[in-house]
Design goal:
By secondary structure, the protein is α/β, with parallel strands linked by helices. The protein contains 12 helices and 12 strands. The protein has a 7-stranded parallel sheet with strand order 8-7-6-9-10-11-12, sandwiched between helices. The protein has a 5-stranded parallel sheet with strand order 2-1-3-4-5. The longest helix is centred in the last third of the chain and has 19 residues, at 294-312. The radius of gyration is 21 Å and the shape is globular.
Length: 332
Amino acid sequence: MSEIVLITPEVMLHRDTPYARLLTEAGFEVRYPRNPHFARGLVSEAETIDELQGVSATLAGGECYTPAVLAALPQLRVIARCGVGYDRVDIPAATQHNIAVTITPTANHEAVAEHMLVLMLGLAKRLVVHDRMVRAGGWRTQLTDPIRGRTLGLFGLGRIGRSVAVRARALGMHVIATEMLPNREFVQQHQIELVDFDSLLRRSDFLSLHSTLTLETLGLFNRETFAQMKPGSYFINTARGGLVVEEDLVAALREGHLQGAALDVFQLEPPDKNNPLFELDNVILTPHIASADTLSLENMGLEAARSIVMLKRGEWPDGAVVNGQLQATWKW
């Protein structure tokens, strides 16, 4: 009998895709969740366990893999996250239950970088405000902000941050970054200035987040942090909603200390319909879609599927496994 792979992300719920074919050709049975919104991570542990019964591997979205969920799924061998974030997977519990957790480290960084630039340009050029004005019959001149010559601050200089930096430099921006383990060769080649966190806040005309969510970064961008940012600057988050205390961001925007913000991620996803961010004209919001253009989606699916197939064959997908300490003892 074929082993089952469950493909969960909403944008992947198609029956004929290259990654589904790859899994089928490798001998797996491909299934999709009964609840099409399963991957949003809003269902109970009981429903999650029920959805994953009999599943050997998942092409995972944003569903939650808690210790209780993982303990109830002895057949689960691989959680292949489509993307680079894995904060909704309890890694110690997965490791305890001998479940390999993989990510897709090379599939979506360029898509996120492009989306970040769209958000930055949309803020600087007041794209949404001007669109609404023209549609309402308005026609007036309102000066916009330049990108060229301005300073872009990057909190995080991993694959996504580096992809953003290259594009920003091409636009004539000065790029500064805070990164614990920077790629020194890249920094030198692209003339990136490494700075401490306080300098990043104080000097950035546009501040963009490209960090993982950890205990240290949870809620790092709060009232105190926003107060240290350059007056009139812009704030952009395409990383993780938990990095930001949203009520403090709203306050900084309403008070006029920050000129605008753009968010692709939120503390609660989907956000509550009464979220005060919705009331602000100087905010651009998108539905956690930065990493998922048509090309990156296919690449993420293929990269995740390849990890599952390799692990089934006894091969180790180097660079993709989060809990790499399992390598010596892991078996399908």
